[in-house]
């Protein structure tokens, strides 16, 4: 017993199944052993052991039969399955050489006979036991135990309830009343069951099975009733047992005299039980069981007596049971109610990367759908592949067991399904839109389509009309062959003859195979219909009986090759007509001829056919001659001939001596005869009428479909002339829209400007644009648009989808009709008019305007929306008045549902930017912000199959050849499955289909190349992957396309975007194509390199470039060779298998590429995509794309990079400043002896190491940042080199600074050495005198009083100082030294210069005189005419230059003075070098100055320097005067002397003096050095830091603040003296910040606390040293703090004088006073005001922040706006916003009015300029980079971009004019409308601060 086997072997089974739990579960589910619900419940269990344990329990509950099936399943899955666990039945079968076949297959003759005998015996037993008969009958419903499980019955479903009731054995015992269906009056009358007794006899008694009841046997005859019942029971038994299929499976029940062909049935129309299909009015019970052998055939035929009837309800219940079984096997149960949708199928998942190989039955639907969507010809195959584990069985071992090498054993456990069963199941589980897609793809593959679906889950069969609506076919009838015209029509609307093929009884040859041979053109055989010799065609059908398929033949207009001159439809009924009388009746009504295929006709069948009397349809018989029945059959046919008006030609006989080719020839000839006899024609749409009359359901009759149709008909009823309709009903997208597009482009290009000033011309264009928008907005909605909006806005989702589909069908149909008529007219006029091209051109325009689709209606909506938005922005319309605000939401919903959305309007070559933006914004909102997507686009020549490629690859629905090519660009959204989003790195894939390049209709236009370039640039810019589609036939066109594509890629590389590119070469079918084309690929790469160079020249790129520079292209990986789409000659050609496979390979590669790309680059989300659309389109509209491209995403990424760089730069600078501070302190603490020649070299090495380390750290940070995957970093990849150079530049700047500071510190320290040595000697002398005085006073008899002691000390001090040879440093005349160096500098400049120097006054007198410009300073002799304009401009230039140079020199002088050292003559040398360097640069800049200018300038600068350096020198001398220094020490010496005399414990006093005299000054200096650095750190990390994080942020902050204050003087400072303004601004902001926050005090405490901790640590550390004296203790302390503090050596010496204190006590005392010192210092710092604090600092915070935001300091050569580029060494300068040139003092030469033109407008205009750099020659602004190659002046991204400065100019026009000594500008009227809010908004947008 199988049950016991499982029970006893449970643990072994669990251990075995745990090795592969999932395949086991899949297999038992696919075989129907467990239900779908049980399967899903088990799937949810996470623990494998628990899952297997529960599976075994469920199997045991299913009873013995379920356990047997389970063990059989395990035996097939596990080759080494233990024999003792095998079911007993299986072991017995194995011993008998697997005689039984669970799927209905046959084996040997002997086994076949035994099976048949067993079946008949079973039938006898059932007659004796009616209950068992009933149980077996119920098994026909598909359940294992005769009853449906509770899981399979839905009590709420009336059909399930009926089925459940009929399956009750008690109910079934009651006699059923026959049901009759009243005749509809159409078709043949339905015969009465009582009239047609069914005979049961054996036709070949000599070979038949012996039976005593057989009339032909000696035993006599048995009664007809018993015969019929036995056969019925026999069939039921066979079906219920699962060993042998039902009798309806002809040829599978017996094998007589030899083996029946394995798995081959007499006809492909094999059924599981044909009696399951309904027959109107009569219930047929039993049907034939036949089998064919070589030369012999036997069948159990019908007896002449009446059989029990089966009611239609019972038949329908049987079909429902079979359907449930099939759906369970295919795992489609869950889709029975919630239908499978197209969007579910198109969803990208991990399965998209796998091969679609079915292993279990549950894989078949997905295998079919995926292959079909990919147009793969193998989609219908239902063969299952074995997994590797299934193939491990060693055949040698098997042979060894049986002793035979060869055997005929079959794998009985393998599961099969007929392809038509899978098709029916899939269609039943699909919604109507997926059904449409399935049938469309099947049509492309030339598969026969289902016309009538059998009644499975419906009471009647269903006509598929809606599902075929989308199919359009082209053909050329012979009547149009000469004119080479063609017809293109929807398949359902095309009337043509229909020929039907049906089967009566059994037939040993395949009807479907015969039809394939008849319909296949010569040398192009195709399997339209599935037949028994195809893969899985021999598998018994379970649910597909009663299916009517339809296929077509369309002529190609070639008389010699076409089979038929006109189209013809061929239908094929699956199953016997007797069992499917309703379908047969339908076919007789709609067909021109019906071919009945049979082998014999009985009396019953004769009576059945007689009912067709009076039918208009011609009936033909195809007879497969059988020797035993031929005579009887011919006799009955002759009797039938007059009834059916048949002629001799209507009988086609297949003789046994002839092969099938003869029959095919006869049949074709007959069909041609029918076609030539003007047969009746009908369309599928008309067939639906007949179907409804016969009670057949039409799936199109659903309420949703009809409601949508009514709405559509209201719209399309008005369309007669398409061009006229578009003019009258779609008014906004006609000339208005095209004119708008022209104005928008002209706003960017300004080609028609002529002499009008740029801003005036732009204002005119702006007004024109607004006027066009007003005209649009004034248009009312037409009736058609009102109905269309109602359709997409008010219908429910299902109705809306139907509405849009109906719109497409109707509009395409109308457009096709119009185009057909217009083309015919064009052809006539071509012949009639000859050379008269004007009329032809007019007609050509009409043809171009005759396309009409849903996109035109959506485009109209977009224009209404855009016009409304424009009015709202202008303030002409309030938000409350808006009508169309809801439209973007509707369009976004449509996109989500898979409808393509128009991105570029191909007719106007424009993008409705506001509409597209708002639709995509709504889409982003609908997705909850999860909208990451990868964008894939396709580019190529027109009509090269781009749309078809995308449709095939992704299953999309881009329009293909519906009378027009794609115009513009359309985008379609594909969802990525949630479990695959992380791996693929995106949530959606956006696919963009584009119009073809090199379109013939555009070729005549002058700007066709430009149009193609714009399109290519836009879509490549938007894409992550670009597919370049090239047809290999036309090398010239391919080259043109490549040139366009390369140009676009070059543009992308320049803006930092590098999409991947895949080159697809179509129509290359040779298997060696990839290898053979290696040389071609190399040649292609060479061509691409040449094209790249040419494109670079066009884009005015100076650098040498190759194709590999602009994109990552691998010729081996990124080149694809795809065969042509069609296999053969259309229209009868199917899709080429090679095409499908190649496209799938490409698709897999793309997904793999995306998966590998996702970690490296973040995909765009919808807002970023919107930004790209806007910026790319704006740049495309300009002529110079690269310099016009502005993108906020790029700007944002660049700003973030700049912010990060600024942080790294400050970290680097801070580290170096701290190091320098410590190094200076260390130098100041060293004695002159220690500062030998090697000191500076040692410092130089250390500096180099530090700088190298810091530089590498910065470069690593830069590298890491670019590799971090931060948002959009790839867009600023091209700036990486700029920042890399900036790091190097920073390193060199710091190196120069550190070396100079180190050298200067050493020089200052060495300079003090002589003074320090003298001071030390003087102090030693004084200490000796004090010591002597102390001894002298102690030796006196009388103790001295304090006053006396003080007098004695004063006397000694005075005498000692008088005795000392106090030497002071000599006072130098610094101005004389500087004058001498100036003379040496100018000694080679000639006598005139010498005279000027000789006449020059003392240098010190120049400090008080301002430097004034003189006319003689300019050398204008080289200008032909020194006109006033040139003089003024040169004077202004020279004045600005002088001012900047003087300011730079003053900064240098200030730095030297601030160092508090002595003057060094190198200072003057450096100043002269700076002046000479700047003068040289100015000469190179064509500013010619006279010698007097140079002399006067140097005198002025050096005069200021001489005065400052003289003061510096005198201050140094005073500070280091020996007597002054000694006098400063007098109080300390006296205090020490007094304490020693009175013998006081001076330890505490000495400790206090140490803190007060040594530590406190040192700490004060420390604070001055460190506080500035900490202020910068704190300020940059405060809330205001964002304002200073980048130059763009800073500019926005400043301009916003200026706008708030509206102070004219501040604007003048900002514009005219930007550097000074910025310094003042930063200083003010610093003061304000710390005054408001009080944070300065906290910083002071923090800085002081840090150093105080170090002091305490040093004191404690010094205590533990082996110091014996205070002197040693302090030496240790000084050594520990030598890098932090500079302690006064003089004061230290005094403290150590006669200091005999305890080291421990001295240290404790010092620490006691530290808190007091700390408090004192903080108190003194607090007393300083905020401004005073900043003046005390050695490190100026304002200067450091200034460096951060000031940048390179370069200004726009035209409007003087500062550069905003990040880093300090960038290749190009740029600014976000430029300003009117008049603000930079520019005025008209003649009128003296301030100029109001913007350089950002001028550079795209026809305006010219001249200045010093052009040698005052006129040059076009467009060529400004000839003179300013480092400046990139981009056009404004919008007309409002410069509103800020327009507003300021308008506000202060007269003020600026007065200030600049000019006349006020005559500003455009538009500028006066700009408000303060608009001005602020414009800089928000410009600086990306939204």
Can you walk through the features of this model?
About 12% of the residues have low confidence. This protein has 1890 residues and is mostly helical. The chain is elongated. The strands form 5 sheets. A 9-stranded mixed β-sheet has the order 12-11-10-7-9-8-3-4-13, with helices on both faces. Strands 14-16-17-15-18-19-20 form a 7-stranded mixed β-sheet, sandwiched between helices. A two-stranded antiparallel sheet has the order 1-2. The chain is built from 70 helices and 22 strands.
Mean pLDDT: 78
User: Could you state the oligomeric state of the chains shown?
Assistant: single chain
Could you give a short account of the major beta sheet? 9 strands, mixed
The SS-based structural class is mainly alpha
Instruction: Give me the number of helical elements.
Output: 70
SS elements, strand count: 22
Helix content range: 40-55%
**What gap, in angstroms, lies between the N and C termini?**
78 Å
Overall geometry comes to: elongated
Gyration radius (Cα, Å) is 50 Å
Major beta sheet, strand line-up: 12-11-10-7-9-8-3-4-13
What is the percentage of strand-forming residues? 5-15%
Uncertain runs = 90-310, 391-402
Question: Which features would summarize this protein structure in a list?
Answer:
9-stranded mixed beta sheet; mainly alpha; 22 strands; 1890 residues; 54% helix
Task: Give a quick summary of the entry.
With 1890 residues, this protein is mainly α.
List the helices and strands and how they pair.
Layout: H1 2-8, H2 10-17, H3 21-30, H4 36-43, H5 48-61, H6 63-77, H7 88-95, H8 109-128, H9 130-139, H10 158-166, H11 169-173, H12 224-241, E1 289-292, E2 297-300, H13 312-329, H14 342-346, H15 364-373, H16 395-402, H17 419-428, H18 432-444, E3 449-453, E4 462-463, E5 472-475, E6 487-490, E7 498-503, H19 511-519, E8 548-553, E9 568-576, H20 581-590, E10 593-598, H21 603-610, E11 618-624, H22 630-643, E12 651-654, H23 660-676, H24 684-693, E13 697-698, H25 703-716, H26 722-729, H27 735-749, H28 758-778, H29 783-794, H30 797-833, H31 837-848, H32 854-873, H33 887-896, E14 901-905, H34 913-926, E15 933-940, H35 946-954, E16 968-975, H36 978-984, E17 988-994, H37 1000-1003, H38 1008-1022, E18 1025-1031, H39 1035-1054, E19 1060-1066, H40 1073-1076, H41 1078-1098, H42 1107-1110, E20 1119-1122, H43 1137-1157, H44 1166-1181, H45 1185-1188, H46 1192-1228, H47 1237-1267, H48 1280-1311, H49 1313-1339, H50 1346-1363, H51 1374-1385, H52 1391-1399, H53 1428-1458, H54 1466-1484, H55 1491-1519, H56 1522-1541, H57 1547-1580, H58 1591-1605, H59 1608-1616, H60 1618-1637, ...
Parallel strand pairs: 4-13, 7-9, 7-10, 10-11, 11-12, 15-17, 15-18, 18-19, 19-20
Antiparallel strand pairs: 1-2, 3-4, 3-8, 5-6, 8-9, 14-16, 16-17, 21-22
Helix pairs in contact: 8-9, 8-12, 9-12, 10-13, 15-17, 19-23, 21-22, 25-29, 25-30, 27-28, 28-32, 29-30, 30-31, 32-34, 33-34, 34-44, 35-43, 38-39, 38-44, 39-41, 46-47, 46-48, 47-48, 49-50, 49-56, 50-56, 51-55, 53-54, 53-55, 54-55, 56-63, 57-61, 57-63, 57-64, 57-66, 59-60, 60-66, 61-62, 61-64
